[in-house]
UniProtKB/TrEMBL annotation:
Superkingdom of the source species: Eukaryota
GO biological process: cyclic nucleotide metabolic process
SUPFAM superfamilies: LigT-like
Protein name (database record): Cyclic phosphodiesterase
GO molecular function, one term: 2',3'-cyclic-nucleotide 3'-phosphodiesterase activity
A Pfam family reported for this protein in Swiss-Prot or TrEMBL: CPDase
Listed InterPro entries: Cyclic-nucl_3Pdiesterase, Cyclic_Pdiesterase
Higher taxonomy: Eukaryota, Viridiplantae, Chlorophyta, core chlorophytes, Chlorophyceae
Amino acid sequence: MTSKESYSLWAQPKGRMGEQLKAEIAHLAERHGANPFPPHVTVLGDIEKPRAEMEALMEQLAARTKKYRINFTDVTRGSIFYQCVYLLVAKDPGTMAAAQAAREVFGRTTPPYMPHLSLLYSDMEDGERLKVVDYEIGRLYGENSSYDTLMVENGYDVDSISLWYTPTDDTGLRSWCLVGEYELQG
């Protein structure tokens, strides 16, 4: 099966927070037989345009988007593969403005934006998802946490948006790759 050309725009954590979330995603992937992936909040996903057009539109988006902060509000679960277990992100003005700017630049209308940072991609049953949520609350915020797993911060600053090649039919994530990173305005 051939993957369709599809891209996503990500706000990725850097530094210590990025490393911690990368390790947590890898831990959960190993624990549940899933594939690890880079930590990110999707600003806009599943965009089907040629790569050259994507890169030109990314320049436009970066020029009109101000730096902002992502703040986590909860560990929760969804009902689809790409939203199995995640950190819910506050709908703060900067987060929502970046998402709206992306939709305008790329000419997309989408369902209401629900910013989140996935911790696990899986098709597991809802009862299992709930167990993972409880486990993660304990590891990241609760009495079961250690200095290795306790969240170093409850969010991160976004100073760039990354363009990733992410064919959604590749649930093994093998073809996913970084295309470029675009610095945001002041």
